[in-house]
Amino acid sequence: MADPLTLFTSIGLSEQKAKETLKNYALCSALKDAIAQAQRVLGVAGVDKATGTLLYTMASRLRDPKRLGFLTDHIAQHKICTELQLAAALEFVKSHPQDPINQKEFESLCGVGVVITPEQIEDKVEKVIKKHKDQLLQERYRFNMGLLMGEARGGLMWADGKTIKNEVDMQVLHLLGPKTEADLEKKPKAQKAKAPDGEVKVKEELTMNGELKIEGRSLMDQLRGAALNFHKPGENYKTEGYVVTPKTMDLLKQHLEFTGGQIRTRFPPEPNGILHIGHAKAINFNFGYAKANDGICFLRYDDTNPEKEEEKYFTAIKDMVEWLGYKPYEITHASDNFQRLYDLAEDLIRRGHAYVCHQRGEELKGHNLPPSPWRERPAEESLVLFDRMRRGLFAEGEATLRMKIVMEDGKMDPVAYRIKYTAHHRTGDAWCIYPTYDYTHCLCDSIENITHSLCTKEFQARRSSYFWLCNALDVYCPVQWEYGRLNLTYTVVSKRKIIKLVEEGTVRDWDDPRLFTLTALRRRGFPSEAINNFCAKVGVTVAQATMEPHMLESCVRDVLNDHAPRAMAVLEPLKVTITNLPEGIRNDVRVPDFPANEFMGSHVVPFTRTIFIEQSDFREVMEKGYKRLTLDQPVGLRHAGYVISVQKVIKDAQGRVVELDVHCCSSHEAAEKPKAFIHWVSEPQKCEIRLYERLFLHKNPEDLSEVPGGFLSDINPNSLQVINSALVDISVSKAKVFDKFQFERVGYFALDPDSTADKLVFNRTVTLKEDPGKM
User: Fold this and answer.
1) Where are the beta strands (DSSP E) in 626-684?
2) pLDDT tens, residue by residue, 484-517
3) Residue 188 pLDDT > 80
4) pLDDT in tens, 339-364
5) Is residue 367 helix, strand or coil?
6) Is 270 assigned a catalytic role?
7) Chain segment 711-752, per-residue pLDDT in tens
8) What is the model's pLDDT at position 204?
9) 296: part of which helix (H) or strand (E)?
10) CA 195, 199, 204 angle in degrees (round to 5)?
11) Which of 204, 257, 264, 493 makes a 20 to 30 Å CA pair with 55?
């Protein structure tokens, strides 16, 4: 059998997921057994991705190892083919622990052998839509489509959810037609009742198992009080796994005297790169938990690797924290504590818990390594050698200080200090040895009297060493709590890979709007409020969350719809001359900033004899369903109160339409109401428009099973389109960098920092509505 990493990636796991699995001994062993048995059942050496995904889910969720073989057989024989069937199977074996299993009952309750045809799905959806037809026609796309999905699934328990959704979408589109502008207008929110303390009430209902379900909870609600079942300050010892020593209670008493029982958290980024969307969840969790519970949160730079740290990263991190709406109680640095950390390291050596080792880096890689030959070196000798390390008497890699502990992932004696002859941005050449994360993190938490050390799930393997080191030194020991990472598909956030994209010229820099760094999202026009709302929607989960970009974009639309004033812009201009208006005429047209609420302000744009419309808003040949301007079909001009009809089409030498002569009349005088109203500009300002699409073609560009050529081979050639000849109305001429607008009928845009007094540059933030192809 191949090595575990190769084996796990061969069944469809990403390299990152495979490495995480290797750290969990029980899961790793169960998955290897399941794959081996599936290969025996199938009689082949490999397992396809669909089967591999089910095997991984089964191995990670199964609580009774003796059922592993039973369930593996059913998956390998394709009797269990979907996540829905697997969930039912896991629930069955959980509720039937006694042998033997009733095979007939099991297969009946798990949908084994049940086949749902496309015709059955089409028929069921048709009946559901017919039942709700009148309400659908009345409410159109404001109707709760989830109701249709729920009723359709009710009669087709084992049907694929995506197939049902596609059928519902198709039949609804057939019934209602494409969305109109009225459909796209956001429905006004009803005023919610206020709770006695002024907070908005949330909807509460009981779920089937009697647990309280709260819909629409804000992030603060999710983090407040006992919502997370976290320990109270000073009650660290009540946390599962917390190690109590003879000095614990005295240390907790001193801690409480210092903090007064206040919650204290910290956000500890490494200043060697730009923060990305995953960090937004960490910022919201750390700062939000403190804020929701009247506590404080430190911004602490983990600046222990001088080779990769730059001042621009320190500044950018602080800017992004403040952009998301948080103000640190204090900005600190791990380097503030270099002397204290060194003193504690000497104490650790004296206590017999650390030693100086001369093994090279390559000798320390891998698992199940033999103990270092210097592990039992006398403390006095290690103290002398550690001092020599401090004074620069060893070459880099020639000596390290290691702690005597076996970590949860099997790693033995992690390094506490290593030698680096690199000047530090704050301490200069004062130090040539620098502490590692495993050594620094918990001790800085202790020094700052942190109550809740919140970190992502991959640090769970370090929790025991966190407690061990604090207790080995008899210092106050905070509690480490883990939460799930936030990941997005169709992107990469690795610092190394972003640097590669910049070096290859694929993107311009860390703030290229096609990336999902926070600086890139701000440049693209994403409001910080939308990012915080997205984090609240994802929720404070223990499980890792991998979300689709369209979910974030939906949050962006919700905010911009309420806060981005309207303007008119034409991306591909077509000149229009209104022949029945006199030369030199210039009228002012008042345009509401927010058409749904005209009390929120307006602006004035000129209307003259010459206007510009989108090329796509005119067609010489009438086509079925086309409602805009044609030779025989007039069209209305938004906000102007005019209807125009074509008199003459002017073409260039190549036969392309370059200008229209039209006649206009008041919309009140028009023979019949036009089928559509289009946007336009007059006396406009020329601008550059940048249209962005996903940077990568595949969901998981880092997954070699999905993209064998690597992420650099997966670049979307159409991820950026630059339009240099766009026109925008003069209402935006005084916009400031990052100001946001809705260009009517086009999309949401933000002013880019590349703008000058002579030329404005706008980035498309998101389209007006979600592209169903991106679902």
Assistant:
1) 629-630, 635-637, 642-651, 657-666, 677-678
2) 888 899 999 988 899 999 999 999 999 999 999 9
3) no
4) 999 999 999 999 999 999 999 888 87
5) coil
6) yes
7) 999 999 999 999 999 999 999 999 999 999 999 999 999 999
8) 33
9) strand 296-301
10) 65
11) 493
Q: What is the mean pLDDT of the chain?
A: 88
Find the mean pLDDT for residues 97-105: 85
The predicted pLDDT at position 193 comes to 45
Decide: 349 and 473 in contact? Cβ < 8 Å: no
The residue from 15, 151, 270, 572 that is catalytic is 270
E strand or H helix at 470: helix 463-472
Residue 330 burial by CB count (10 A; 0-12/13-18/19+): exposed, middle or buried?
Answer: exposed
CA–CA distance, 661 with 649 (Å, rounded to integer): 7
Q: Is 212 exposed, middle or buried (0-12, 13-18, 19+ CB in 10 A)?
A: exposed
Q: Which of 79, 390, 420, 495 is catalytic?
A: 495
CA distance linking residue 748 with residue 564, whole number of Å? 8
Rounded to an integer, what distance in angstroms lies between the CA atom of residue 773 and that of residue 775? 6
State how far Cα 275 lies from the chain centre: 12
Count of residues in the chain: 775
- Give ∠ CA 494-495-499 in degrees, rounded to 5: 115
* Cis peptide bond upstream of 100, omega within 30: yes
- In the residue annotation, 659 being an active-site residue is answered as no
Which parts of 652-719 are beta strand (E)?
Answer: 657-666, 677-678, 685-692
Q: In the Cβ-directed half-sphere of 218, how many Cα atoms lie within 13 Å?
A: 12
pLDDT of residue 152: 83
Check whether 398 has a pLDDT greater than 80.
Answer: yes
Please, what sign has the CA dihedral across residues 509, 514, 518, 523? positive
Read off the DSSP letter of residue 735: P
* Amino acid identity for residue 252 in this structure: L
Cβ-based neighbours of 554, under 8 Å, separated by 6 or more: 770
Catalytic residue among 485, 508, 575, 609, which? 485
Q: Is 683 among the residues known to form the active site?
A: no
| pLDDT one-digit tens code per residue, 584-616 | 999 999 999 998 888 889 999 999 999 999 999
Token digits for 440? 């620094």
DSSP string, 20-76: HHHH-HHHHHHHHHHHHHHHHHHTSS---HHHHHHHHHHHHH-S-GGGHHHHHHHHH
Taking the C-alpha atoms of residue 287 and residue 283, their distance in angstroms, rounded to an integer, is 6
Q: What is the distance between the alpha carbons of residues 91 and 113, in angstroms, rounded to a whole number?
A: 18
